[in-house]
TrEMBL record:
GO biological process terms, semicolon-separated: cell wall organization
Name recorded for this polypeptide: Peptidoglycan synthetase FtsI
SUPFAM superfamilies xrefs: beta-lactamase/transpeptidase-like, Penicillin binding protein dimerisation domain, Penicillin-binding protein 2x (pbp-2x), c-terminal domain
Domain PASTA stretches: 614-676
Organism: Solidesulfovibrio magneticus (strain ATCC 700980 / DSM 13731 / RS-1) (Desulfovibrio magneticus)
Chief location bin: membrane
Keywords assigned: Carboxypeptidase, Hydrolase, Membrane, Protease, Transmembrane, Transmembrane helix
Location of this chain's protein in the cell: Membrane
UniProt-listed InterPro entries: Beta-lactam/transpept, Beta-lactam/transpept-like, PASTA_dom, PBP_dimer, PBP_dimer_sf, PCN-bd_Tpept
Length: 678
């Protein structure tokens, strides 16, 4: 079929348009490639250096990381303080959209005053913290609200898992993880985590590279740990018995110290009232104060064993030396020194046993001011012990040149010289350590935190042992003022103290501090237990208010340590024994009424029935407050598998009761009731 001219013209037109389309497509792609290459050339050649710097700023950044605060442990490795990661809430005021709405919401969920929150939101600074510790539920509510300008950040908060246990020793930290009291302050530099500046790489999501398994940079920036000599279980016993002593005697406060003689380690340092260091606000400085190391007091009669040791060391008296106690009144330098009892001639051991002020004054006068003052200095009075406690008191020991004859006499029975409880514990540690000075220790690690003083001898060993035996008489012999500390079957030595407190207007008032210091055992002691009860009422005698607490702490401590003897002496008194009281001396009978000493002996006798007869039996120790594991270990040694009642890991009560005979025939009847630690 032949094409007509018309068909040929139409075919040519179609071919012409196809050529145009192909040309246009080719031109478009050519221009596109030219544009891309031009852009690439611009980015690589012209803008390349600037873009490279921007990439570095986005993917490589300098950041500051702060390590966690170090932890605090007791001597057995039990945790006393640690840092936990918490969420802190802060705002950027310039990003707040609706100040009134934001302030109202945050005030409600944070339980803060709205005006205070609004003031933070209107702060001229770039950022302001609202709360350093926000709970998980509260944080979830705030996140759900999605308020502009409100942010969270991770901080470290201090947590004390045992609540008030050793609270005055531990102290607490403030805002910014800064130690404010106690060990937290003393070791703040060691405990505080260090800051490290890093150049880190980020991925597209902003996550950092090169982390360890815990998500932290590969560098040790955490604070260092501290380990104390405190045994948290013995500390618990000390605090519980101290609280009973203060509350039961309507006292103001109290202190208890337990010292391990062979090492000088402080196993317990308790102060009452307690406080919870987990509650950062509203802590009274007086309650948070470590009274055992900061407060000074006149020791009273607890000074007498140290006086006797000094006099025996200087050979100014012998154990058999006698002194006329003037029937209770002794005039000296225009003043009258009084005894609480009318005594005649007494040997040195009886002066200590019945706590005669006049006898002690005459021993001091015979010793002389220069020598007594020198012994006070050797015992550590007038200077801090060196324990790592911020602001430790140094006591009050006036210069020798300011001493009068009356000062010599009164200092001999503990008036006119002031010491801290730890100073007194240090002095008795010398006496317990057979006369050799050994520094007290409160920190096991780092050891360099302890006083680096060289041991030196203060008393000969035979002198120290002689005084130790005299202190045994205070507890075990008739008319001994420390008989309330007696644990039948255990050799306990001790000394009571009933110190009259100075009045604000001068002189002495009608407030007292009752104290008791004990050696366990009496001769060659392994432990020192000391209790002070401030302003007890109505009775203020150390033998009544402090000695029972010492006894209970000792019983629980020895039971916990598994050191209770296999046999003890259990008292058995006749029915009328509770009505018996020690016979008063003839001088008191002649006076027509009981003297102050008679009242003290009467109070002691009424608080503890007289012992008429003792029989040797196998006795059950006191397991209350003891960890279940330790109690089971002790019972297993007796072949006893106890029956457990309740839930928890701490023994709450027991059957048979403490002091009862071991259930030899029916060991299955031994029951321990458990509770969870409070």
């Amino acid at each position: 079929m032949r094409r007509t001219p018309k068909d040929q013209r139409q075919h040519a037109t179609v071919r012409d348009w196809s050529r145009v389309k192909l040309t246009c497509v080719g031109v478009f792609f050519a221009l596109a490639w030219l544009a891309l290459w031009s852009r690439a050339g611009y980015l690589q050649i012209v803008a390349g250096p600037e873009l490279a710097q921007q990439a570095v700023r986005q993917h490589v950044a300098s950041e500051v990381d702060k390590g966690a605060r170090g932890e605090i442990y007791d001597r057995t490795g039990r945790l006393l303080a640690k840092s936990v990661e918490i969420e802190a809430l802060f705002v950027r005021p310039k990003e707040i959209v609706d100040i009134d709405k934001t302030a109202a919401f945050l005030a409600k969920v944070l339980h803060m005053k709205e005006q205070r929150v609004k003031k933070k939101l209107q702060s001229p600074s770039s950022m302001a913290y609202l709360s350093w510790r926000v709970g998980d539920r509260t944080a979830a509510k705030i996140r759900e609200a999605a308020l502009p300008g409100v942010y969270f950040t991770k901080e470290f908060g201090r947590f004390y898992p045992n609540g008030h246990l050793a609270s005055q020793v531990m102290g607490f930290v403030g805002v910014g993880d800064v130690g404010l009291e106690g060990m937290e302050k003393s070791f703040d530099t060691r405990l505080t985590g260090r800051q490290a500046k890093y150049v880190v790489q980020r991925d597209a999501s902003g996550r950092r590279f090169f982390f360890d398994s815990q998500g932290r940079e590969l560098a040790d920036i955490n604070g260092h740990d501290v380990r104390l000599t405190i045994d948290s279980q013995i500390q618990f016993f000390a605090e519980e018995e101290l609280e009973k002593a203060v509350v039961n005697n309507n006292a103001k406060s109290g202190t208890c110290l337990v010292v391990h003689v062979p090492t000088g380690d402080i196993l317990a340092m308790a102060n009452y009232p307690f406080f919870n260091p987990n509650v950062g606000r509203g802590i009274s400085p007086r309650v948070a104060r470590n009274h055992a190391a900061l407060d000074v007091w006149e020791p009273g009669s607890t000074m007498k064993p140290l006086l006797v040791a000094a006099a025996l060391q200087e050979r100014t008296v012998k154990p058999t030396s006698t002194f006329n106690c003037e029937n209770g009144k002794f005039g000296l330098a225009g003043k009258v020194i009084k005894d609480t009892h009318s005594y005649g001639v007494l040997p040195v051991n009886m002066i200590l046993r019945v706590s005669s002020n006049i006898g002690a004054a005459k021993i001091g006068l015979q010793l002389g001011s220069p020598r007594l003052h020198a012994y006070f200095e050797k015992l550590g009075f007038g200077r801090p012990t060196g324990l790592p406690i911020s602001g430790e008191g140094k006591g009050l020991l006036r210069p020798l040149k300011n001493w009068s004859v009356l000062d010599l006499a009164t200092c001999s029975f503990g008036q006119g010289v002031a010491v801290t409880p730890v100073q007194m514990a240090q002095a008795f540690l010398i006496l317990a350590n057979d006369g050799v000075y050994k520094p007290l220790r409160l920190v096991a690690d780092p050891d360099e935190a302890n006083p680096q003083r060289q041991p030196y001898r203060v008393f000969d060993a035979d002198v120290a042992r002689t005084v130790q035996r005299m202190m045994r008489e205070v507890v075990h012999e008739e008319h001994g003022t420390g008989r309330n500390a007696l644990i039948p079957g255990l050799e306990i030595g001790g000394k009571t103290g009933t110190a009259q407190k100075a009045a604000a207007h001068g002189g002495y008032g009608n407030k007292y501090l009752g104290s008791f210091v004990s050696f366990v055992p009496a001769v060659g002691p392994e432990y020192i237990v000391m209790v002070l009860v401030d302003e007890p009422e109505p009775s203020h005698y150390g033998g009544v208010v402090a000695a029972p607490a010492v006894k209970d702490v000792t019983l629980r401590m020895l039971s916990y340590l598994g050191r209770m003897p296999e046999t003890v002496q259990l008292a058995k008194a006749p029915a009328a024994a509770s009505a018996e009281t020690p016979a008063a001396p003839a001088a008191a009978a002649a006076s027509g009424g009981p003297s102050r000493a008679d009242q003290e002996i009467l109070a002691i006798a009424q608080s503890k029935p007289a012992t008429a007869k003792a029989v040797e039996v196998h006795a059950v120790p006191d397991f209350s407050g003891m960890p279940l594991r330790r109690a089971v270990e002790i019972l297993a040694q007796k072949g006893i598998v106890p029956k457990l009642e309740g839930q928890g890991l701490v023994v709450n009560k027991q059957s048979p009761a403490p002091g009862a005979p071991w259930p030899g025939d029916k060991p299955s009847e031994f029951v321990l009731w458990l509770s969870r630690p409070s």
